[in-house]
UniProtKB/TrEMBL annotation:
Family annotation (PROSITE patterns): MFS
Keywords: Membrane, Transmembrane, Transmembrane helix, Transport
Topology class, membrane: Multi-pass membrane protein
Entry's transmembrane regions: 12-38, 50-69, 81-101, 107-124, 136-155, 161-183, 195-216, 228-245, 265-290, 302-320, 327-347, 353-375, 387-408, 414-436
Protein name from the UniProt record: MFS transporter
Organism expressing this protein natively: Pseudomonas kulmbachensis
InterPro entries: MFS, MFS_dom, MFS_trans_sf
Domain called Major facilitator superfamily (MFS) profile: residue spans: 12-443
Pfam families for the chain: MFS_1 (PF07690)
Keyword Transport: yes
Length: 454
C-alpha cells in the first residue's frame, strides 16, 4: 500500500477548499453586481440572464463527462486544469469589454467549475482514509458555505466602492494559491484503462441545449423572429434524435440505462429540478429587485440579502438531520411552504415584508435542495449511486439555467418580479402534489409487491 503524507492531505484539502470558495463566492457576489453590469454595458436588465444561465448550462453539460475524465485523466491533474480554467476565465471576466465577452468568459468559468467539483471530491476520497474522509469533505464544503454567507455583502460592497470587476479579480490570488498546492500533492496512480468519454454525444448535448436555450429566449417574440425560432427548434430536435440514437449504440453512454427504468428516481430528480430552478431564480431576481424595485444601493442590497443567503447555506445541515425515510415528505412540505412564500413575496408592497418572505423562502428552498440528493440516493442501487448523483446534479443545474433564461425575458429596465414569483410558486405547488401522490403510489405498490411475493 502506498503511503501518503499528511502534507499531501492538507494541500489537497486547501486546494479543493479554495476552488469551492471561489465558485460559491462568485455565485452569490455576482448577483449583487448585475444591475451595475447592465448600466456599464448600457443593456436591458433582461440581457443579463446569459451571464448567469451561460455559466449554469456549461457547468451542467460538462459535469456529465467530468467524473469519467477525473477517473481516467487523474483527479489531481483535472483539478489543476479546472482551477487554471476558472482562474483564466475570471481574468477574462474582469477585463471584459462587452457583455458578449463577459458571457463567453462565464461559459469558460463554468467548464472550470465542472472540472473542480468531481475531481476535488474524488481526490480527497483517495487521499484520506475512510474514517477521516467525511470530515475532510465537510470542511471543504463548509468553507463554501462561508462564501455563500459573505458573498452578498462582499459583492454589494465591492460593486459600490470599487466596481463589479473586482469580484473577478479577487479570484486570481486564491486560484494561484490553490494551484501552488496542487503541484505539491503526491497523488496515487490509478491503474487500469482510462475511462472513455463519448465525445460526439457530449457535443450533441452541448449544441442541443444551446439551441433549447435560444428557443426559450425567443418564446413570445414578434413574427420576425420566427426564422430564428424554427432554426433553434430544428437544431434541438436533430441533436436530441442523434443523441438518443447514439446512446443506444454507444459502448460508453453518457447516461446509465439502468436509471432510465427507475421511476421514483426520475420523480425525485424532476422535483429537485423545480427546487433548484426556484433557488437559482430566487438568487437572480431578489438582488435585482432590491436595487431596481426598492431602490437600495448595491451595499444595502448586499446587507439585506445576508439573511436569505445564510439561511440558504443552513439548509444542508438541517436536511442532513432528516431521516432518509422522511426525505420525500419533508421535500414536499418545503415545496408547498416555498410556493406560499413566493406568492406572498409577489404581492408584497413594503420592502421589509418582501425581504422577510424571501428570507424564509431561502431557508425552505435550501432544505429542499439538499433533500434532493438525499432522497434520490435512497432509491438507487449502490452500484450506480455515483452516476445517479452526477446525473441528478446535471439535470437540476441545467433546469436552473433554463429557468434564469425564462425569468430574464424582459426588454425593459426591470424584471417582471411578480410574474416570475407567481410562476415559480405554481411550479413548486405542482411539484409538491406530484411528490405526495408519487410517494403514496410507490408506497402502495411496494406493499402489494410484498404481499404477492413479487
Amino acid at each position: 500500500m502506498t503511503f501518503f503524507s499528511d502534507r499531501s492531505h492538507r494541500l489537497a484539502l486547501l486546494a479543493f477548499s479554495a476552488g469551492i470558495f471561489c465558485i460559491q463566492l462568485d455565485a452569490f457576489a455576482l448577483n449583487l453586481a448585475l444591475l451595475s453590469i447592465a448600466q456599464d454595458y448600457a443593456v436591458p436588465v433582461g440581457r443579463l440572464k446569459w451571464v448567469v444561465s451561460g455559466y449554469l448550462l456549461s457547468v451542467g453539460i460538462f459535469m456529465l463527462a467530468a467524473g469519467r475524465l477525473s477517473d481516467g485523466f487523474g483527479h489531481g491533474r483535472l483539478l489543476r486544469l479546472g482551477l487554471a480554467l476558472f482562474g483564466s476565465a475570471s481574468l477574462l471576466c474582469a477585463v471584459a469589454p462587452s457583455l458578449l465577452w463577459l458571457v463567453a468568459a462565464r461559459v469558460l468559468q463554468g467548464i472550470g467549475a465542472a472540472c473542480i467539483m468531481p475531481s476535488g471530491l474524488a481526490l480527497l476520497s483517495h487521499l484520506y482514509p475512510s474514517e477521516q474522509r467525511g470530515r475532510a469533505i465537510g470542511l471543504a464544503l463548509g468553507l463554501g458555505a462561508i462564501a455563500t454567507v459573505i458573498g452578498p455583502f462582499l459583492g454589494g460592497a465591492l460593486t459600490q466602492w470599487f466596481g463589479w470587476r473586482l469580484i473577478f479579480w479577487i479570484n486570481l490570488p486564491v486560484v494561484l494559491v490553490a494551484l501552488a498546492c496542487c503541484w505539491r500533492i503526491a497523488e496515487p496512480r490509478v491503474c487500469g484503462a482510462r475511462a472513455a468519454v463519448n465525445g460526439p454525444a457530449l457535443l450533441l448535448v452541448s449544441l442541443g441545449l444551446a439551441a433549447l436555450g435560444l428557443l426559450l429566449d425567443e418564446l413570445g417574440s414578434p413574427a420576425r423572429a420566427m426564422p430564428r425560432v424554427g432554426l433553434a427548434l430544428g437544431m434541438f430536435v436533430l441533436c436530441a434524435s442523434l443523441f438518443v440514437w447514439g446512446e443506444k449504440h454507444a459502448t460508453a453512454p453518457l447516461i446509465d440505462t439502468s436509471l432510465l427504468r427507475n421511476p421514483p428516481y426520475w420523480m425525485l430528480t424532476l422535483a429537485g429540478a423545480v427546487v433548484n430552478t426556484a433557488t437559482v431564480v430566487h438568487l437572480f431576481v431578489v438582488p435585482l429587485s432590491l436595487q431596481g424595485v426598492w431602490s437600495l444601493s448595491p451595499l444595502q442590497a448586499g446587507m439585506a440579502f445576508l439573511a436569505p443567503a445564510a439561511l440558504l447555506a443552513c439548509g444542508g445541515p438541517i436536511a442532513g438531520r432528516i431521516p432518509s425515510s422522511e426525505a420525500v415528505s419533508a421535500m414536499a412540505i418545503c415545496l408547498g411552504f416555498s410556493a406560499m412564500l413566493l406568492a406572498g413575496a409577489a404581492l408584497a408592497y413594503g420592502w421589509l415584508l418582501y425581504l422577510l418572505l424571501v428570507t424564509l423562502c431561502g431557508a425552505s428552498l435550501g432544505i429542499a435542495n439538499a433533500l434532493t440528493l438525499i432522497a434520490t440516493q435512497a432509491v438507487v442501487d449502490e452500484q450506480v449511486a455515483g452516476v445517479a448523483s452526477g446525473l441528478t446534479k446535471t439535470i437540476i443545474t441545467l433546469a436552473a439555467g433554463f429557468g434564469v433564461i425564462l425569468a430574464g425575458r424582459s426588454n425593459g429596465p426591470l424584471l417582471n418580479v411578480q410574474g416570475v414569483f407567481i410562476s415559480l410558486a405554481g411550479c413548486c405547488l405542482v411539484a409538491c402534489f406530484a411528490l405526495l401522490m408519487g410517494q403514496r403510489y410507490w408506497t402502495g405498490k411496494q406493499t402489494v409487491d410484498k404481499l404477492t411475493g413479487r
